[in-house]
Amino acid sequence: MLAGLIVATLALVMPTAAYAHDGTSEALILTVDQGRVVGTGLVEFAELGLEDTSGDGLIDATELSEQEAAAAATLVGTVRENVTLAVNGEALEIIGAGLSFQGSSTDTELAASEYVGVAFASAEFEGELDELAVTWTFPSPSNAILLSDAEGAVLGHLSDEGAVSFTLGAWATASSFLLQGFEHIQLGPDHLLFLVVLALGVVGVKKGRAVWWPAIKLVTAFTVGHAISLCLAYFSIVSIPAGIVEPLIALSIVAAAVLALRRKAGEYRWWIAGVVGLVHGLGFASSLSELGLVTSDHVIALICFNLGIDIAQTIVVLLVLAVAAVLTRLVPKRFEIIRVSASIAIGLVGLYWTVTRVWPF
């Protein structure tokens, strides 16, 4: 049981990128502006008639510039074949498209990518946009789509058939970002493991019903901390590079694991959770800002994003406490060994993430 627990926990490391908050940057972005729909997204270069002339399976900026003029002749037609738009039930024609390189350069070599950025614009439509139906059949790295205008923003996901429908408004913005906040905990394993190891620290010093009040203080302190820093970072009042924030988030997991092992530190974890929450909030803010959100519903989006995060993290902590309660009844003599082993395993994961996030710099 112990071996399986440790292996399962460490296995989280293998499929997880060093940075856990950059998935939204690959989303398809749709913006409604002056009666047009403008979109940007990533597409596999071969789908656009581009070729890998170097034979490395990727395309770089030089290869793109050499072929861009030839690809431009058929680009609008290719986009029309793979992207359709309908406003309020009426088809909307795509009238223009362009390409951009999505890689980045280093001092020693020119980076390459399997994806090329595609931008497109629609013809003008009349009246207000009440509903937008989208199909996107291009092979892309993400099925997330953000639709925004001057009044709101909605995050959606393509179905298996590559289709999604949007409505705009305050309620749509609220429900969309509530779901995004909830899903962020699932997509951010560093936040999840931090909460798990904090809860393991609580059950290490409290038993039975006495565990609930310390757990409530932990979640509340962490919530207040990340809500404050998320708002400050999102509105650019505080700006700290991801190269600093992400390693600190990983290091906080290591610190929480150490505190979970040092049971005498348990009474002071609520304020520690609040301080660490400030750091984690900067990571939440980076995920939200990567969506390119430009909307007058900032307050609604932020409140609902925070609320979704809080609901998810409360569920995580409650599940840990419930499992701990069951184990203390089933294997009371071995529970402490399980708790310590899980804390060590999570601490090792945090240490691995810390190293891999610092290493590139």
Protein model, in words:
By secondary structure, the chain is of the alpha+beta class. The chain has two domains: 2-21 and 189-358; 28-141, no CATH class. Helices cover 52% and strands 18% of the residues. It has helices spanning 2-10, 61-82, 170-187, 189-205, 212-234, 242-261, 269-289, 298-330, 335-358; strands spanning 28-33, 36-44, 59-60, 83-87, 90-92, 94-101, 112-113, 115-122, 131-136, 144-148, 153-157, 163-167. The strands form three sheets. It has a six-stranded mixed β-sheet. The protein has a four-stranded antiparallel β-sheet with strand order 5-4-9-12. It is elongated. The protein starts with a helix and ends with a helix. Mean pLDDT is 79; it is low at 1-20, 104-110 and 292-296.
Q: Largest sheet, described in full? A: 6 strands, mixed
Distance between the termini: 38 Å
Q: Tell me the total number of β-strands.
A: 12
Report the radius of gyration as a whole number of Å: 23 Å
Helix content estimate: 40-55%
